[in-house]
Amino acid sequence: MSTVPVVDDTAPSRPVAEPVLQVRDFGVRVGHRDLVREVTFSIARGERVGLIGESGSGKSLTALGVMGLLPEGLTATGSARVAGVPFDLVGASERRLSTVRGRDLAMVFQEPMTALNPTMRVGDQVAEAMLIHHTRPDRASARRAGVELLDQVRLPDAAALARAYPHQLSGGQRQRVVLALALANDPALLVCDEPTTALDVTVQALVLELIVRGVQSRDAALLLITHDLAVVATACERVLVMYGGRVVEAGPVDRVFTRPRHRYTQGLLAASDLLAVDDRGRLATIPGSVPPGGRFPSGCVFRNRCGHATERCESLPPWSGESAGDGFACHHPAAPDEGWGAGGRP
Amino acid sequence: MSSQELLAAAQPQGEPHTGVGGARRAIGPSLVVGAVLVVLVVAMALVSFVWVPHDPTLVDATHRLEKPNGSYWFGTDKFGRDVFSQVLVGARTTLFVGFVSVGVAAVIGVPLGLVAAVAPRWLGDTLMRVNDIVLAFPALLLAIMLTAAFGQSTFVAMVAIGVATIPSFARLIRSGGLQVMGTEYVLAARVAGRRTTAISLRHVLPNVGNLVIVQSSVSFAIAVLAEAALSFLGFGTPPPTPSWGRMLQESQELLFLAPRLAIFPGVAIAVAVLGFNLLGDGLRDYLDPRLEDRQ
Amino acid sequence: MSAQAIRVRDLVREYRRPRTSLTRPGPVVRALRGVSFDVARGERFGIVGESGCGKSTLLRILAGVDRPTSGTVEVDGLDISGLPERRLRPLREKLQLVLQDPMSSLDPRMRVRDIVAEPLVAQSHSGNRERVAELLRAVGLSEEAADRYPHQFSGGQRQRISIARALAPRPDILLADEPVSALDVSVRAQVLNLVTDLVEDLGLTLVFVSHDLSVVRHLCDRVAVMSEGQVVETGPTRQVYDDPQHPYTQRLVAAVPTIERALAGASTADLAAAELRAIEAMAEERTTA
Question: Is the model's pTM score more than 0.80?
Answer without folding.
Answer: yes
